[in-house]
Amino acid sequence: MSSSKGNAIFLVVFICLYISNNLYLVCSVDPTTGFTNIPLTEANFEIQRPYDVPLEERYSYENGTRRLWVYADDKPHDPNSHTQPRTEVRIQGLDYSSGVWQFEGYGFVPNGTSGATIVQIHGASHGATTIILRIYDGDMRYYSSELVDTGLYDRWFRVNLIHDVDGGKVRVFIDGVQKFETHDQGPGDLYFKCGVYAAPRNISYYMESRWRDIKIYKK
């Protein structure tokens, strides 16, 4: 095989980057390979917002982009709830409790938003959530602890969140690169959410995220 042909094959298959500080090999791939896309309609997008505010004052959907915002002193989404303020898309009608499921979407977080959950898997055997991904000062963290990715302000980034319920694993891909993997919190009534949901502390007064091309996959 010629050198040029060998180089071409190498480039076509995939690009691998060695991340020395994490001590493992990360490959830029398509995380949806092997999954089946589940068609969505607007009925699958339930918007949760402060209960005393009209929808259009916390959410817009124009030209394929969903913009969601909330303030630190907003009310919860339900008058009987004691949770933090939120404006979130709750994927409706596709709750799951087994198998391998995947959320994909392109997110955008404007500079200044901090202490906001932008995507999560709700439900678990232990606790209320399987995974929460928050933005703090432009960086993404697993809840408020482990760093997932950096430098996410003011740009579109692709998020793929894969949950293997039977295997008890959750993987996070940003722009096609696996950035994080963790054990889940056990099976439950599980579903995906994205938007802005204020953390319990260290939050900005105004929080916003934007989403487009949201898809759900199943294996």
UniProtKB/TrEMBL annotation:
Name of the protein: Citrate-binding protein-like
Alginate lyase domain ranges (all copies): 43-217
Xref: Gene3D superfamilies: 2.60.120.200
Domain of life the protein comes from: Eukaryota
Keywords in alphabetical order: Signal
Organism: Coffea arabica
Signal peptide: 1-28
SUPFAM superfamilies membership: Concanavalin A-like lectins/glucanases
Coiled coil segments of this chain: none
